Amino acid sequence: MIFAAILAGGIGSRMGETDTPKQFLTLGDKPVIVHTIEKFAINSKFDKIIVLSPKNFINYTNDLIKEYFGDNNNLVVLEGGKTRNDTLINAIEYINDNFDIDDDSIIVTHDSVRPFVTHRIIEDNIKAAKEFGACDTVVPATDTIVESVDSKLIKNIPIRDNYYQGQTPQSFKINKLSELVNSLSESESNILTDACKIFVLKNEDVYLVDGEITNIKITYPYDLKLANTILKEI
C-alpha cells in the first residue's frame, strides 16, 4: 500500500505579521495547501492521502478539501503534532490503526508549503522507497557552504560537490520507519529535524532522488512572492 502524508502542522512563525499559517495563505487564486494536495490527489497510486493540520485549523482544512475536492474518500485530515516528527508519528499511527499494511507499504511525506512538487518527483520517490526503503529529494548545492559554530567565525568551508540541499518528499517503508522511531533515545529525538535523519542516526541508507529548483518551500514573505511568479510562468 502507498500513503501520502501532507505535513501542514506548523504555524508558520517566520512568515511575518499574519495570524494565518503559511500553508493557508493564498497563492494565485487558492490556498497554498490546495495546490500541494492537488499534486497528490491526481496520482491514483495513493491508497490514502493524510493531511496533518494544526488543531485550530482542522475544520477549516476539511472545509477547503470539500470545496476543492468534493466528497473525496481518499483524503483525510488529522491533527498535527508539536514537532515535525510528532506530526509524522500521528500519520503512522493512523495508518497502523486503519490499514493492514505489510513490510513493502510506503509513506511519501511532503511539506504542505512546497506546492510545485512534480509528478516525476513523486513517482521517483515511490520507486526509490520501494526499492531502497528510504529516500530524500535533493538538489545539488549551488552556493559555497560555510560552517560556523558560533555564528561569528568560519570553522570550515567544505567541498561543495559533496553537499546537497534537502527538499521533500521524503519517503520510507512504513514498518522500517516505525521501528527506527521507536528505537530513538530521548537525546536522539531532541536533535531531529526531519525523518531522514532518523535513518542516518541508525546507520541506515537513504537514497537520493533528484529534486527541482522550482520545488521551493514557502517560508518567508519573499517566498510567497516568488511562488506567485513561478505560478504565472507555469
UniProtKB/TrEMBL annotation:
What are the GO MF terms of this UniProt record? 2-C-methyl-D-erythritol 4-phosphate cytidylyltransferase activity; D-ribitol-5-phosphate cytidylyltransferase activity
Under the heading HAMAP family, the entry gives: TarI (MF_02068)
Name listed for the protein in its UniProt record: 2-C-methyl-D-erythritol 4-phosphate cytidylyltransferase IspD
> From its record, what is one biological process in GO terms?
isoprenoid biosynthetic process
Say if the entry is tagged with keyword Cell wall biogenesis/degradation. yes
Concerning CDD domains, the annotation shows:
CDP-ME_synthetase
Pfam families associated with the record: IspD (PF01128)
Name the SUPFAM superfamilies on file. Answer: Nucleotide-diphospho-sugar transferases
Q: Which InterPro entries match?
A: IspD/TarI (IPR034683), IspD/TarI_cytidylyltransf_bact (IPR050088), ISPD_synthase_CS (IPR018294), Nucleotide-diphossugar_trans (IPR029044), TarI (IPR034709)
Recite the UniProt keywords alphabetically.
Cell wall biogenesis/degradation, Nucleotidyltransferase, Transferase
Lineage top rank: taxon: Archaea
